[in-house]
Amino acid sequence: MENGEKKNYESYVVVHNIAKRHNVGTLARSATAFGVSELILVGRRDFNAFGSHGSTSHLRFRHFHSLSLASSFLKERDCDICGVEITDNAVAVNEHPFRKSTAFLLGNEGTGLSAKECEICDFFVYIPQFGGGTASLNVTVAASIVLHHFGGVVKL
Amino acid sequence: MENGEKKNYESYVVVHNIAKRHNVGTLARSATAFGVSELILVGRRDFNAFGSHGSTSHLRFRHFHSLSLASSFLKERDCDICGVEITDNAVAVNEHPFRKSTAFLLGNEGTGLSAKECEICDFFVYIPQFGGGTASLNVTVAASIVLHHFGGVVKL
């Protein structure tokens, strides 16, 4: 914000059949805070109700019926699709593997990204954990940490 | 985790009269993921019910009736107390101003840290925002981003 060239790469968040409605509202707040261009809802239509949230005045919502339609839209915008998931080839988010505008695809809590969801991803990032215990992070928490890194690196 | 000396500084999260009970459960999950030693609940007693959460097996809960009792406990452990708040002298969390074991004090959403809460803090960090809009982050999201930075810097 204060220093350096502003590359103006855009970020998107893609949410596919999210299980808990109230997560979308919190996700929208973080998306606004970290300069996300659009929150893309795929599948179930009832997400659209969240478009009117107070904190989302700078955030656009877009809906697609299928993952492949969402993917086509993002590819037309020359966007990488980054899955947030612990996979064999996932890169730690701290290493900032972002090269251009990026859409972040988040899986459902518990089950993570499905095979179908992984197929549309260009690469994967994971959030390193520390300490004795491990825990599945809340989906909004995971998204927020990733967006915070993307915003800090690419937009500053 | 993979490289370097392990300094084993500890982290704590201090929650003072948090407004929304369900935030404590999500906070406990992030605290577990990022190696927090203890979740310290100050004030209202009913927080203790969360001690039995499934994801918190590696996390201890501790209760104090007042902020000054919590502060004394932390000072005995040679712990810095870091307020998570946008104040005039707050440092961006990305700059990693952490020097030793640190307890993170979080304010209520909306009103932030009170004057009384600020008094027990040794320093403050804030989470930079990006883009056109600004939003108050969910308290668990804010805590998770800060713990992620602390864990990545001090424990790796």
Query: Strand-residue fraction of chain A?
Result: 15-25%
Q: Could you state the order of secondary-structure elements of chain A as H and E? A: EHEEHEEEHEH
The main pleated sheet of chain A reads as: 7 strands, parallel
Mind telling me the C-alpha Rg of chain A?
A: 15 Å
* Average pLDDT taken over every residue of chain A: 83
Beta-strand segment tally of chain A: 7
GO biological process, one term (chains A, B): methylation
InterPro entries (chains A, B): Alpha/beta_knot_MTases, rRNA_Methyltransferase, SpoU_MeTrfase, tRNA_m1G_MTases_N
Protein name (chains A, B): Family tRNA rRNA methyltransferase
Keywords (chains A, B): Methyltransferase, Transferase
Would you mind describing this structure in some detail?
2 copies of one chain form a homodimer. Chain A is of the alpha/beta class. The first copy, chain A, has a single domain (16-133), classed as 3-Layer(aba) Sandwich (Alpha/beta knot), CATH 3.40.1280. Chain A is 29% helix and 21% strand. Chain A contains 4 helices and 7 strands; from the N terminus they run E-H-E-E-H-E-E-E-H-E-H. In chain A, strands 3-2-1-6-4-7-5 form a 7-stranded parallel β-sheet, sandwiched between helices. In chain A, helix 1 (21-33) runs parallel beside helix 4 (139-155). The radius of gyration of chain A is 15 Å and the shape is globular. Chain A starts with 10 loop residues before the first strand and ends with a helix. The model of chain A has no long low-confidence stretch (mean pLDDT 83). The interface between A and B is large, with 35 and 36 residues.
